[in-house]
Write a structure and sequence with these properties.
Elements (H helix, E strand, L loop, with lengths): L1 H30 L4 E4 L21 E5 L10 H9 L3 E5 L17 H14 L4 E6 L2 H11 L4 E7 L18 H7 L3 E4 L10 E4 L4 H4 L6 H10 L3 E2 L18 E7 L7 H10 L4 E5 L6 H4 L1 H13 L1
Parallel strand pairs: 2-3, 2-4, 4-5, 5-9, 9-10
Antiparallel strand pairs: 1-10, 6-7, 7-8
Amino acid sequence: MAAAAAGIKRSSGSMTSLHLMGAVLIFVVSMISLAIATEAHEPAVTDQKLQVNDSIHGKEHFVLVHGIGGGAWFFFEVVTLLKAAGYSASAIDLTANGISKVVADEVVTVVQYTQPLLDFLASIDGQVIILGHSLGGGSISFAMETYPQKISKAVFLASNMPTNGQTFFSSFPPTVFPRLIGNKDLILNFANPGSPNPTSVYANKTRLALFAFNQSPLQYVTLGQDLFTPTPYQPGTEKLNLTTSKYGSIRRFYIRTGHDHAVLPSEQDQIIHANKPERVFHLSRADHMAFLSTPIELFSALVHIASI
């Protein structure tokens, strides 16, 4: 009986701690003015203080999708913050990334690559706010076209933002991949002998601190060196069919990262100009891994997007 009582007491303590954490987060986000810029119509980013309203306790469900080499692990801090503040949050491992055991070189279509995301959306009731990071902008765009009724808002974080007929790769400015490959930040793999076509792409783990984690704590560089995996290449060359009635019906938001060495801020501006979203949020201190370098600021931007 004593042991059971002790167990109940510990459980109660855990719940109290979780509620306290949520209350602290609400206070911090509500009272501290963060340097996040937002604009509604013109893609030029201007400084404006973020205000968070009482809708922080909403029941919105966020679905977070990684880019090249990543996985659900990218978002562990932001998922924790969102859940502590009363939201639902799910992070997805796309095929061959994260804990997926599929070999990246064997994945050749967008449907294959995004299947875990599509399966997740098919399984849920109601709508979600979906976020795509980096190359994940292409993945969520495909999901927006496939399940528009399941997505209320789409957030593009330092990512591509395709238009109809573009590919995952071609929806980035033409300077992005030649620079990353030329600097050996990204490395192409050719698993089919005699074929000139790459089969996968992976981040150079010796250069993560230079182009991806340049503002992130050093321990996350170490984590990335252990957890990054190759990403299928061929899906990135498939043209997307994005229609006004499906993809175009969903509200889009862009989060621009000010210290990004992977997709430069000027390149993100080109993406924004080419396919204007409803609003742009500016994380001035963030590197490409905003969920690790500036998790509170990213969390705050997501809360604001949920409220509007």
